[in-house]
Design goal:
The chain has 653 residues and is of the alpha/beta class. The chain has 21 helices and 27 strands. The strands form six sheets. Strands 19, 20, 21, 22, 23, 24, 25, 26 and 27 form a nine-stranded mixed beta sheet that branches. A six-stranded parallel beta sheet has the order 2-1-3-4-5-8, with helices on both faces. Strands 11-10-9-12-13-16 form a six-stranded parallel beta sheet, with helices on both faces. It is elongated and about 90 Å long.
Length: 653
């Protein structure tokens, strides 16, 4: 497993933010080979992501993990690999192997500073053939100050390009209040490169007398803030004041839209086409999104977006040729706009496309008059994009390129060993049915799990429910009833003796698991032969019988540190639902039955003190119920509980 340090603006609403999140999502598909750590950075003046969702919570858990690892390493953590998702000016040596990830440049050549920084990287990953060519084809003539000889100053670092994947989501209806039935759409941050002003002029020239045609401009200047909205609106009003007689409509759409809302925009029945008069794109994400949502596209016939707007077409002679699947805007190649020059990034000597106004107007008119033909072509392109740019294919390409070695195949469920889940049953009438419903829905329960229920002479009536589930899962549930209660750790030891699985986990009646907890933990343990136990963070609730998906935990959670013996002496990281190898007991014995609450902590410390290795899984995988009547959480038990913990600590301190 490689320790991977990812530096990028993955919490920002920006193109580079999207790029960084794409890389993270690819790494997440193979957490069995990548141990991920994060360094978030800003991106210009763009806004930060604010949504609370599974991905954001996963990113937050990785940030906490990174801080913990850095603290444990006295601020000098070691990483096998760094991925730096940003402009090359910010690349640096951070790990044993360093990969620069960039959208590249939208013009014809990269800056000399980029060539200098590329020398620090072992590989460069960019987003399109156009962006890769910028690195491969830029050559400056330089002079060796010592010898006086001239030489070609160019990038010699290996360069690859991997596209974005099609992120298919369910479109969310968006109310646009459109007065026009035929509308073009453009999405652009207002900048010289996006060339929105030329598009507006050409649109008004072409449709100025048509009161049923509109142009929707999804735009901002820097952020999606109210101040930005005021400034953006002011710019548009200044521009449109030059056309007081126009009948066609111009709509400004400002503010953050979710991926589902953007899909709703692309598929809105009154939105008929996407148009871009861009000078150049590293990739052209909005163009791509429009394409895989089936929207006809008009765009400049140059730069990164050609990778997905041309598709292979077999000719009559069986030879394959790329065919354009969009309305092409002709252009001339010329120097970049003076106001676009960015020292060290966009060189004034570089060139980009300057769309021809006649071609823009002709493309708009043709699509308006013959929309059905262009829509049919767009549907063909959509089908190809959804297949060739699927998340599985694109993420696999990222994984193979980043890993840099012969990849082992992902672990299949069929390859996993059997898992024995041990549960002590005592006075659990309130919890037994929700517990059994929760545990039997585990993604690998029927195929890979045995649930060992040990009834410790419970005064409750759990047996009726247990037998009902045993009848439903006869191959998966083992039930043993004792004549007397021997204590929690004696029950666990009975479970260990009954277990036929190579892996063991405990499951408390009042706690709950994510639906894939056991699958994720078992894959992690299976892929690390040198690790004896794995564990993960947990949410905390004070309400009984909630589920992992629907609960009142809010921000309350157990955030456990990465494993070390010193950390384990301070906190019982495996806590309520670890997964461990049964062989751990062969080497280090069973649970100490003298304890009533701290026996598991003592067991793990005993094993770790004698060389056992534990590993923390990424993400939050469980829900812990802070039961006021629980053995370890009942305030009436705190006196003897603290005495047990003191005894354990002093034994191993």
């Amino acid at each position: 497993m490689k320790k991977v340090y990812v530096k990028g603006p993955f919490l920002t609403q920006s193109g580079y933010g999207h790029h960084a999140r794409t890389v993270l999502r690819a790494l997440k598909t193979r957490e069995d080979i990548f141990d991920i750590y994060l360094h978030p950075i800003t991106w210009g003046k763009t806004s930060w992501i604010w949504q609370d969702n599974d991905e954001r919570r996963w990113i937050d858990s990785l940030l906490e993990k990174t801080i913990s690892y850095s603290n444990q390493s006295n601020g000098k953590p070691h990483y096998d690999l760094s991925l730096q998702v940003t402009i090359p000016n910010e690349w640096e040596k951070l790990a044993g192997v360093n990969i620069g990830v960039t959208a590249g440049i939208e013009s014809t050549q990269i800056a000399p500073q980029w060539i200098e920084k590329s020398m620090l990287m072992d590989k460069i990953l960019t987003i399109s053939k156009h962006s890769a060519d910028g690195f491969l084809n830029t050559v400056y003539q330089a002079t060796n100050n010592q010898t006086g000889q001239n030489f070609a100053y160019k990038c010699d670092t290996p360069v690859e390009y991997i596209h974005y994947p099609a992120n298919t989501v369910t479109p969310e209806k968006i109310n646009l209040d459109l007065k026009t039935n035929f509308n073009f759409l453009t999405v652009a941050q207002l900048s010289p490169r996006k060339n929105t002003e030329q598009l507006i002029r050409c649109f008004i020239d072409q449709f100025g007398d048509n009161d049923d045609v509109g142009l929707i401009i999804k735009a901002n200047i820097a952020k999606n803030s109210l101040i930005d909205r005021v400034n953006t609106t002011f710019q548009f009003k200044q521009l449109l004041a030059k056309f007081p007689e126009r009948k066609c409509k111009i709509y400004l759409l400002h503010g953050f839209l979710t991926e589902e809302e953007m899909a709703g925009l692309y598929t809105h029945p009154k939105v008929k086409a996407f148009v871009s008069t861009t000078h150049g794109e590293g990739f052209g994400l909005p163009l791509f999104e429009a394409g895989y949502n089936g929207l006809p596209v008009i765009a400049t016939d140059w730069s990164g977006h050609l990778d997905f707007l041309y598709m292979p077409h077999k000719q009559k002679n069986n030879k394959q040729k790329n065919k354009h699947m969009f309305s092409k805007i002709s252009y001339t190649l010329g120097p970049i706009n003076q106001e676009a020059v960015w020292d060290g990034v966009l060189m004034k000597e570089s060139m980009w496309a300057h769309p021809e106004e006649g071609s823009i107007k002709m493309a708009l008119d043709d699509l308006y008059k013959d929309h059905g033909r262009f829509k049919k072509r767009a549907k063909t392109l959509q089908k190809w994009l959804l297949n060739e740019f699927s998340q599985e294919k694109i993420y696999n390409k990222y994984v193979e390129s980043i890993y840099g070695e012969q990849l082992l195949a992902p672990i299949e469920v069929k390859d996993l060993p059997k898992i024995s889940i041990i549960t002590s049953v005592y006075d659990g009438d309130e919890f037994i049915e929700p517990f059994l419903e929760d545990i039997t829905r585990q993604t690998i329960f029927k195929e890979k799990c045995e649930l060992i229920l040990v009834n410790a002479a419970s005064p409750g009536n759990e047996e009726e429910t247990i037998l009902k589930y045993k009848e439903k899962f006869p191959e998966n549930i083992i039930y043993k009833k004792l004549d007397k209660d021997p204590g929690i750790y004696a029950v666990w030891n009975i479970g260990v003796e009954l277990a036929t699985g190579e892996f063991i986990s405990n499951a408390n009646l009042d706690d709950r698991k994510s639906i894939d907890q056991l699958e994720k933990l078992s894959k992690l343990l299976y892929s690390h032969e040198d690790v004896d136990l794995v564990y993960a963070d947990m949410l905390i609730t004070d309400q009984p019988n909630e589920t992992f998906e629907n609960n009142s935990a809010g921000d309350r959670k157990y955030t456990f540190p990465e494993f070390s013996l010193d950390n384990l002496k301070m906190v019982n990281m495996p806590h309520a639902s670890p997964l461990w190898r049964k062989s751990l007991h062969d080497k280090h014995g069973l649970f100490n039955e003298e304890f009533r609450s701290a026996g598991d902590w003592e067991m793990w410390l005993r094993a770790a003190s004698n060389g056992a290795k534990f590993k923390k899984a990424s993400g939050i995988l469980g829900l812990y119920y802070f039961n006021p009547n629980g053995i370890s959480t009942n305030p009436d038990n705190f006196s003897w509980k603290h005495e047990e913990e003191r005894k354990v600590y002093e034994t191993y301190a």
